């Protein structure tokens, strides 16, 4: 069933578990994610991000994600992650996405508030939900960077941001980064707890792929309700296909089931870890 983010994250916040967002830039990823959700009885968030459009254009992704969500036997949110432009967010809403993230985290604070508040009004008028980001979750790079804590989310500012923008969920910067980690991340769990106390909306952890199981458990106990995953399932699909082939005389139709099954296994592992199995309403 197709739902918006509040329908899965508010119960998660109350029940102290997390729901995963898994990006699905092609049909094989989507099939594996949904198979895992239905097998485990887990609510799920599927979608794509603006930076992934070269691999799966937004409109084309909507052709399969939304019908698949409507037919699913578990709650499924179709979410635009890291929408960087107003036009992108509006297009996702027009296509039927039930949730968007308008990422204005690199703007100054007042501009972030103004832009996200305007988009929240539009999303809510269409029955959709919206996620904002405060602080900035960057990328893993080879270059040495300044102290990452400079970009961390301030708990007091988080409360002000939520009250002014009326976002339904808040992505927080607490020590994670996008992509594969080159060094083990150090999450600020005390900061997560402080933000949860101040900002009364579900909190989102970006850059989840590569964290340890204990990192995830502690982050959820501290107050995280949504965790974004892409790298882990993306890599799992390739490994599954590679292991399936012992020679070059196989076709694409033989690769597809191997990739789907690998994505399903990895997604189900994450759902069990996040505590969302059996939580489908």
UniProtKB/TrEMBL annotation:
Keywords: Metal-binding, Zinc. Binds 2 Zn(2+) ions per subunit. One is catalytic and the other provides a structural contribution. The keyword Mitochondrion does not apply. GO terms for biological process: carbohydrate metabolic process. The active site is at 81 (proton donor). GO terms for cellular component: cytosol. Zn(2+) 2 binds at residues 103, 133. Pfam families: F_bP_aldolase. This is Class II fructose-bisphosphate aldolase.
């Amino acid at each position: 069933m197709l739902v918006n983010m509040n329908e899965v994250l508010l119960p998660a916040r109350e029940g102290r578990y997390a729901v995963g967002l898994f990006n699905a830039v092609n049909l094989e990823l989507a099939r594996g994610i949904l198979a895992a959700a239905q097998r485990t009885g887990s609510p799920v968030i599927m979608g794509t991000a603006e930076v992934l459009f070269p691999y799966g254009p937004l409109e084309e992704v909507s052709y399969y994600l939304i019908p698949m969500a409507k037919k699913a036997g578990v709650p499924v949110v179709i979410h635009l992650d890291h929408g960087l432009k107003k036009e992108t967010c509006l297009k996702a809403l027009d296509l039927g996405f039930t949730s968007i993230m308008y990422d204005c985290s690199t703007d100054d604070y007042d501009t972030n508030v103004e832009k996200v508040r305007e988009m929240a009004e539009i999303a809510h008028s269409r029955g959709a939900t919206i996620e904002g980001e405060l602080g900035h979750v960057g990328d893993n790079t080879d270059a040495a960077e300044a102290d990452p804590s400079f970009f961390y989310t301030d708990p007091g500012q988080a409360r002000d941001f939520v009250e002014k923008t009326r976002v339904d969920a808040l992505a927080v910067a607490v020590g994670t980064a996008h992509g594969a980690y080159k060094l083990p991340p150090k999450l600020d769990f005390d900061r997560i707890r402080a933000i949860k106390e101040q900002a009364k909306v579900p909190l989102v952890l970006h850059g989840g792929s590569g964290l340890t199981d204990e990192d995830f458990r502690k982050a959820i106990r501290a107050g995280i309700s949504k965790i974004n995953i892409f790298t882990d399932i993306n890599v799992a699909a390739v490994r599954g296909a590679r292991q399936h082939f012992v020679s070059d005389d196989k076709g694409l139709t033989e690769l597809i089931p191997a990739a789907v099954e690998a994505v399903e296994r990895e997604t189900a592992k994450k759902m069990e870890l996040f505590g969302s199995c059996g939580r489908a309403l």
